[in-house]
Amino acid sequence: MNEKKDILEQLRNSQSGFSVPEGYFDTIEDRVREKISNPRAAHPVWAVAKPALLLSCMFVLILAIGYGTMTITGTSSSGETGKLAEDGAEVVMEQDFSHLEDDEIIDYLAENLSFSDIETFIAEEQTNL
Amino acid sequence: MEDSEILALFREGERNRAFNVIVRTYSERLYWHLRSIVQIHEDADDLLQNTWVRVWNALDTFRGDSGLYTWLYRIATNEAISFLRKQKITTALRLSDPSSVIAAKLAADEEFNGDDLQVALQKAIAKLPPKQKAVFSMRYFGDLKYEEISEILDVSVNSLKTSYHFASEKVKEYIKKYMD
Fold it and tell me: What is the ipTM of this complex?
């Protein structure tokens, strides 16, 4: 039995520190019923904009990570990568997605990107920080 | 009331009554399951309600191939994993570290008062990829058998064992560093 395993075993048997507000579970039925009665309406424009938006969102995500990397590492944007990023940014900026909420874009990315895509983005971002 | 009785009630047309019984019976267990994965009370509460909305909409299609409990866990777990993926994308766009975000949220969460070691544990868990986090939480906190997790996530038992092994090693390593 090594020391590291003991740590997890010890923590499993100790208080987690998690609690809920008083009476939380007594009111859950009412809150669920309320939520079912008033579902959030879907955005009508959203359904139409989906296909084009996926590519744009992915591009924006890559640009954001690239821009962050260049900003943090102090890389000049005058290089080929910087120029490409600037050109790409202009193309994306010409499209008007102002009618979409951030949540809707995030929802769409989460539904359409694979785990490996996300993990790659995060890994690249963390490596570059 | 047994699951079979609840479902019989539902099939007899007592839809609302059957659903209320399910909510009353399983809310607490599902809440703690979700809380162990997403860690923050407010997030777990939102996900629990979203889970119930999905259950309400899908109850007609439940064929009983798996147990009701497994089916509910599957819906809740998918909600949690989907939430974590969105959270990762959001933090990536903001160039933030997901575990720092969770640490800040935990510090502000009135429903968490863990000691330093519990904080370290939660921060370590926050660093895990979404699916690995779900596997670790179900096994470590929920004490579910690999066979049960396999049915919920539709992943082989061997993959789950590997996933849990890597997750627990990462968590232990983080806590060890934290303690040194």
Answer: 0.84
